[in-house]
Design brief:
InterPro entries: DNA_clamp_sf, HUS1, HUS1/Mec3
Largest sheet: 10 strands, antiparallel
Helix content: 10-25%
Structural class: alpha+beta
Strand order of the largest sheet: 10-6-2-3-4-19-18-17-11-15
Keywords: Nucleus
Protein name: Checkpoint protein
Distance between the termini: 48 Å
Strand content: over 45%
Order of helices and strands: EHEEEHEEHEEEEEHEEEEEHEEE
Main location: nucleus
Family: Belongs to the HUS1 family.
Number of strands: 19
Length: about 280
């Protein structure tokens, strides 16, 4: 079992760092699933380990200049978990303009580690190497089934989310009012974000949104809603750092808010289970 990868493109390094930063706000630990063509970043639901809350897939050819791995079993994969905050901290230099290469490899330093090597240009020397060793827990093949691609339930409605910066600003203010956010989408292209407490109810309406799909048996205007933890939704909205063209928002009535980012070189799905109102 071995893994070694190198990223040299500045945009890819910053993008990879941004994805890790987003995950660090959504979970404590992340599972890296490595295959010959893809790198997966997976997080389980903290309240239900049998459910996946984050499923992110990176195309290794789009990100890595060099990528070499030898996995286990016929599927030729490697799975291990690590603290996401340590990975984010070790990659912090990826946002600097003097970073030349970012290397990752599995090493054995008394215990298994993911070693991060950052090659920085320096004014005092031709090369400055910064190394971080992150302890990892190797996941045995018998436990891999918990980290297979999640089955996504059929959405009642999907729309393109409004400006992520505007939504984040509004939701951050709504957090002061109550802990639960009602997210409603209707087939006219309207999104309503609502929060309430004993003394006030506040709704924000976004209209004219692009409809991606609506699953309905009637021709009349349909509205679908789910109630979610406002703090967890707010944490996801930090994905603004990726400078995205669009984010899709999907609702399964009363059960699930699903946000997805689908770019050419990576996809990221965030699943936020509905809670009782």
């Amino acid at each position: 079992m071995k893994f070694r990868g190198k990223i040299i493109d500045p945009h890819c390094m910053k993008q990879f760092y941004s994805i890790v930063i987003i995950l660090s706000k959504l979970c404590r630990n992340v599972v890296l699933r490595l295959s010959s063509t893809k790198l997966y970043l997976i997080a389980s639901n903290e309240s239900n380990s049998n459910q996946i809350s984050v499923w992110s897939v990176l195309d290794q050819q789009a990100f890595f200049k060099d990528y070499d791995m030898i996995g286990e079993t016929e599927s030729n994969e490697i799975l291990f978990s690590l603290p996401i905050d340590m990975l984010a901290s070790s990659l912090s230099s990826a946002k600097q303009t003097n970073l030349k290469t970012l290397k990752m490899k599995l090493t054995d330093k008394l215990s298994p580690c993911l070693t991060i090597e950052l090659d920085l240009e320096s004014q005092v020397s031709s090369k400055q190497l910064c190394t971080h060793d992150i302890p990892v827990s190797v996941i045995l093949p018998k436990d891999w089934s918990a980290y297979k691609e999640p089955t996504i339930p059929a959405h009642n409605i999907s729309v393109v989310m409004p400006s992520i910066r505007v939504v984040r600003h509004i939701v951050d203010k709504m957090k002061r009012i109550g802990p639960r956010l009602i997210v409603s989408l209707d087939s006219s292209g309207k999104m309503v974000l609502g929060v309430s407490n004993l003394s006030a109810t506040v709704d924000t309406h976004f209209i004219g949104l692009e409809i991606v799909s609506v699953h309905s048996s009637t021709d009349k205007e349909n509205k679908y809603s789910t109630v979610v933890d406002i703090r967890k939704f707010s944490q996801f909205l930090n994905c603004e750092t990726l400078n995205l063209s669009k984010i899709l928002c999907h609702v399964v009535e009363g059960m699930l808010l699903h946000c997805s980012i689908e770019e050419d070189e990576y996809v990221l799905h965030y699943f936020l289970s509905g809670i009782d109102d």
